[in-house]
Amino acid sequence: VEIIESIEALWAARRGVGGRLGLVPTMGALHAGHLALVERARAESDVVWVTIFVNPLQFGPREDLSRYPRDLEGDLAKLAAAGVDLVFTPPLEAIYPPDFSTRVEVHGITARLEGERRPGHFVGVATVVTKLFALTQPHRAYFGKKDAQQLRVIRRLTRDLGFPIEIVPVATVREPDGLALSSRNLYLDPAERRAATALSRALHAARAAWLAGERGGEALRNTMWSVLEAEPLARIDYVSVADDATLEECARLTGPAVASLAVFIGATRLIDNVRLADDEPDPFAGAALATHQS
Ligand code: PAF
Fold first, then answer.
1. Whole-model pTM?
2. Residue in 38, 125, 173 to alter for ligand 1 test, most ligand atoms within 8 A of Cβ
3. What is the pLDDT of residues 23-47, one digit of tens each?
């Protein structure tokens, strides 16, 4: 695997790419969820590039930028084993030179949920993703469904700015007990790790109610609240059942929706979601959710 840090070297590498380029943008601390993106890219592309850059612009002043997990050596070993062709690991000044003055802002869809709770977060995501797209010019780019709002923001900016890039969403990878994989799971102590299953249990309960015919937005949100409230280590940031396209909160579900939540487990803020739609495969197939119910 070729490792590149400078923008000039990246341009040169890009000029040498023949065939279809698949891009997997990451912030490192790679887990099986990232590797599922890489695997999908590998299957669909001639050349696979991964970027590793912990983007300060998408972290708020009181968030976890300074302690965000970093393991470049481990990441590179995983990516080499996964058959990645090139890894771009730019230093901060390559992405943000000292007088960097440009921001990309996606309106509307960023107003609620993560955008509301984390002011500036999506400007940071949209700006860095735009720069990575401009630098690497991939044919396809792969993003996890766990970041449901991020996925929609990136789809929107890709269309709005006219990037000829196909955005490919990839299913969330879960632990056997249902917990969605996240680099932030590394922050959890053993008791918190057990408590963190409350997120997937809440979503599972909402999905079960939806499958049984419940279409009331409030009823589905309440279903999630009651599962989360029963977990003493959990503090709810939000629960949402929103329209799949607009992310507007649903009073009644008349089409595809997304149930999502953000929950503090101790000091660690975790997010997760499930799409409530007839064409969505069961996200919990094979998970042993009941074993950890409190
Ligand atoms: O999902 C992430 O890891 C990040 O938000 C991304 C898309 C790599 C942008 O920094």
1. 0.96
2. 125
3. 999 999 999 999 999 999 999 999 9
